[in-house]
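INTERNAL AUDIT FORM
Audit reference: QA-55
Scope: verify that the stored structure record matches its stored sequence.
Auditor: D.O.
Record contents follow.
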Amino acid sequence: MRRSLLLLSLAALPLAGAGAQQSEEERYRRFLEQQERQFNQFMTAQDSAFANFLERDWRAMQAFAASQGYTAPKPRTLPRRTPTPAPAPGPRPSPTRPTPAGGNTPPANTPRANTPPVPVAPPDNVVANIPALPPMPPRRTTGTPGNRPAPLALIPPASRPLPARPVDPSMLPPEPAPAPTPAPRPAAPAQTLSVPFYGGPIPLRYTRSPLPALGSPVDGKAIADFYRGLASADWGVLAEDLRAQSEALALDDYAYAQFVLRLGRQLAGDESRARLLTWYLLLKSNVDARVGYIGPNGATAAMPVGTIVLLVPSTVMVYNTTYFTLQNEKFFAVSLDEAPSPDGLGRLFTYDGNYPGQPRKMDMRIARTPNLGVAAESRTLRWSYKDTTHTIEVRADRNAVKYLEWFPQVEWDVWFGIQMSQPARETLLPALRRKLQGRSERDQVNFLIRFVQTAFEYKTDGDQFGREKPLSVDETLLYPFSDCEDRSIIFAALVRELTGLEVVGLLYPGHMATAVKFRAAVTGDAVVIGGERWIVSDPTYIGADVGEAMPQFKTVTPQIVRIP
């Protein structure tokens, strides 16, 4: 590109001798090199100014507890539908009488032999009247496979292209004095390290470790000096490999933060520098991350003085965690791949200023699990429907389960929007699709609701995990127990995939159910949304068909959760 622009520029000049043309070309080449040095120096000055800011602008901040996802307790045991009592027997039928032909005819009210009884549909009941569906939340996409957002890995300033343009040689600055030529530094041989990451170790090359030492005690000056060391390090092939692997694995923001944290652990061997590297690379990927450190007044047994804490703003609300308010924005202390501190956070030192540019919030919406490598596991599921026992063998991805193990509790539409893994899609869906063939639309959904109601063992998150933890489809398939929101998530996914019907979540105090918009008329308990009937379908209410809400929720207006 530079050579083409150079030729265009020279073509506009009067013809001159070859020596003059060579001189102008050489001057222009040196001019471009000077401009590039100034560009790189500007980037270095930007990092230097930020490091200077970090030295002085730290202050103690008090943590706040984020709101709870659930405020009402869930049932410890599964509620079961009470069978409707059979109608009282009517008057005995009249005896048969002979016909003129000598045969017998049954009374008019006697059913024909072998005719199945017609099920009585529950009466219509409008549980709630909702004016319209809530708007769909925005989702950031970058055109990556499956529209999954993938952050940019660090790009060394020297590799960024300089915007070239034609320059009139008469406007070139005076010829600078020749600078002394530095002695060439021998290129360091590339080394390879392996970053442990779900499906297997990921190789990354580097010539020199970019991680400097972290001064003691850990304070604003020590962190500022650490930042200067990172900003002036030789990233070289490590930056190239980090970008390439980020794109190949289709890492979203949460997975990218996990990956660079594990990279830092491999390079540093200690958690503090690994977290600082994660902060630095998130900043370089245009994510508005912050760090803080625990001072004497905020120390606990689990988080001693000097502990580094990573803070990020989120595109969605994060529940059941602590946050700090910086410039009117919530910065959450998220746990990336380990249990958060049991003592929580109280007080730490952090800075209240932005990295130069326009950093964005961390995107916590997951369309599907990144390419972490498949670790398929099998499970046999059994359930009964209309006195027939069914059995299917399914597989799910253990790596998809591990990826979400410590994913924070975020808004419900995020969990409903997580797609099932390929092993689950290839086994669960075909097995159920075969069993739905030949059934009516209502019977198909009833079949699926009975499958979810009875093929999985029930236990609350508090009893199974000791904390609130929603489950994706793969997690419900592989964890031994599930509760109401987990069953609603998998039921909604199955109905949408296998019948094409629309589904919404119904969030009650201490309970989650769903509602289905049928194509045909279906009677029963319903919510009316925008003038359309959505039939209540509760995959936790054992024995209940579609159109049957739990008695305690028949007059409760639920919060509608729209599914992406």
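Auditor finding: record pair retrieved intact. The radius of gyration is 32 Å.
Action required: none
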